[in-house]
Automatic annotation (TrEMBL):
Pfam families, alphabetized: PrsW-protease
Transmembrane segments: 7-31, 37-57, 69-90, 102-126, 138-163, 183-204, 211-230, 242-264
UniProt keyword Membrane present: yes
Domain of life, per lineage: Bacteria
Name by which UniProt lists this protein: Membrane proteinase PrsW, cleaves anti-sigma factor RsiW, M82 family
Molecular function via GO: peptidase activity
Record's keyword terms, sorted: Membrane, Transmembrane, Transmembrane helix
Organism of provenance: Nocardioides scoriae
PANTHER family: PROTEASE PRSW (PTHR36844)
Length: 387
């Protein structure tokens, strides 16, 4: 009960902060341009959002994160991180008087990565059980980055439409900037903040106190460094080195990070399989269920079979059972590594109890040979085997 109250409090607090951030950004947007310019900015800024979100949802398929938290991450990036970074940069301009070049190359990376990374750090402290490793950190950091880029792009694209610094503006000016920000470098903000996600992911998977502290800190410093390198190339020598920085630094770094993310996703199946097999040995589920739970294609096949055999209700039951089993598997993996959350016994028992309640209604795919029987049911006396 205490855990549920804590989760609800976290959601409410973040939602309130998001509302305040949305008000700030609404005022900024209304003051920054004419209605026509804002419409153009919003439409163009929205175009990359769905493809970017789809990429991170694909990474998140083995153990899908709660949709409510993913929406909060997007909202945090779009409203809270943008408004916080903007206020900090305005304060820097008024109190410190930084030059435009210094503000772009140094102040912006420091403030923007701090405001974006704060959401992932809050998850580490208040919703730690939702973070099972590096891939989860990457997904949440990416969602925050997408939200941030969306709002920032509205500002830049609206300004480009109105024309500035002697530029003619209009639709042509806005589209020209959209090509740079929405097509050539749409992953920029998610990429920068991904380093923080990796650091937080390391913090939840290690038993080393030093790594738990240094992981997020080093991740933040790397995010700032990557962001500063990109921004600095845009302002140094009037952007003469921007193309070289993009081709020889940003693209290779992004490809390395993308490869690492794909490797982490593939590794999740092996991790889940081993954890579920150990769960089966302890009596939490039957060994024959493991293949239908560990592989994404097998999960889909089992859901289609359940729907064909028993309709929509049977499919929902299968989906719910698979969800509980996957959550149990990743929780058990953290237990085996010695990095499980303090309330892992309660969490694990909740998953086991819900699986036990769903199991009698499951319709598993039947073997092709008529001599074989349906998947056996875990005996009731084995369903509460302690860790």
């Amino acid at each position: 009960m205490q855990r549920r109250r804590s989760s609800a409090a976290f959601t409410v607090a973040v939602s309130v902060v998001m509302l305040l951030g949305a008000v700030v950004m609404a005022v900024v947007l209304l003051l920054s341009g004419a209605p026509g310019a804002l419409v153009v900015g919003v439409v163009l800024a929205a175009l990359p959002v769905a493809p970017l979100v789809a990429v991170y949802m694909w990474l998140d398929r083995y153990e899908p994160e709660p949709r409510s938290l993913l929406v909060l991450a997007l909202g945090w990036g779009a409203f809270v991180a943008t408004s916080a970074a903007l206020l900090l940069q305005v304060a820097d301009g008024l109190l410190v008087g930084s030059s435009d070049g210094w503000s772009t190359a140094v102040v912006a990376p420091v403030t923007e990565e701090a405001s974006k990374g704060l959401f992932v750090l809050l998850l580490l402290f208040f919703r730690r059980r939702e973070l099972d490793g590096i891939l989860d950190g990457l997904v949440y950091a990416g969602m925050v980055g997408i939200g941030f880029a969306f709002t920032e792009n509205i500002l830049y694209l609206s300004a480009a439409y109105m024309g500035q610094d002697g530029q003619p503006g209009g639709v042509g000016g806005a589209i020209g900037l959209f090509v740079v920000r929405g097509i050539i470098s749409p992953f920029a903000h998610p990429f920068f903040t991904s380093f923080i996600g990796i650091g937080v992911g390391l913090a939840v998977t290690t038993r080393s106190p030093a790594v738990r502290v240094l992981g997020p800190l080093v991740g933040y410093l790397l995010a700032v460094a990557a962001h500063a390198a990109w921004n600095g190339s845009l302002v140094a020598d009037d952007g003469a080195n921007a193309l070289a920085t993009y081709v020889f630094l940003m693209v290779p770094a992004f490809l390395l990070l993308a490869g690492f993310a794909i490797w982490s996703r593939r590794r999740e199946r092996r991790v889940l399989t081993r954890a579920l097999e150990d769960c089966a040995e302890r009596g939490f589920l039957h060994p024959a269920e493991v293949p239908w739970l560990a592989g994404i294609r097998a999960r889909r096949f089992a859901r289609r079979y359940a729907e064909t055999a028993g309709g929509a209700v049977a499919r929902r039951t299968m989906v719910a059972y698979q969800h509980e089993a996957v959550e149990l598997g990743f929780l058990h993996h953290r237990y085996l590594r010695g990095v499980a959350p303090s309330d892992f016994v309660v969490l694990g028992q909740e998953h086991v109890d819900r699986m036990a309640a769903l199991r009698p209604s499951l319709l598993w795919p039947q073997p092709t040979r008529p001599t074989e029987a349906q998947l056996p049911v875990v005996p009731a006396e084995q369903q509460r085997t302690p860790w």
